C-alpha cells in the first residue's frame, strides 16, 4: 500500500530553505487593494500562488513571487 505524506509534511519547506508565505490578505494590505484584486492577478497569471493544506483551499504567495509581481507592476506603470 502506497503511503501519502500527512498534511503537516506538505507544509514544511525543503531542508535549508525557510521562506515566508503570504496570505491573500497580506498581499492586499501591502498593495493597498482588495483581496479580490489579488485573486484576479492570480487568475490572470500575473502573480504566482500555491495552494496548500489537505484540501488545497488555502492560497499562499511566496515572498519571491510577490517581489516578481511587484517588479512587473512597477514596469507597467
Textual characterization of the structure:
- Helix 2 crosses helix 3 (35-43).
- The chain has one domain (20-76): Orthogonal Bundle (Multidrug-efflux Transporter Regulator, Chain: A, Domain 2), CATH 1.10.1660.10.
- A hairpin with a 5-residue loop joins strand 2 (50-52) and strand 3.
- Helices cover 47% and strands 13% of the residues.
- It has 77 residues and is an alpha+beta fold.
- It has a 3-stranded antiparallel sheet.
Main sheet record: 3 strands, antiparallel
Share of helical residues? 40-55%
List low-pLDDT spans.
6-10
Structural class: alpha+beta
Shape: globular
* Main sheet strand line-up: 1-3-2
CATH topology: Multidrug-efflux Transporter Regulator, Chain: A, Domain 2
What Rg is obtained from the alpha carbons, in whole angstroms?
Answer: 14 Å
Strand portion: 5-15%
Please report the number of helical segments: 4
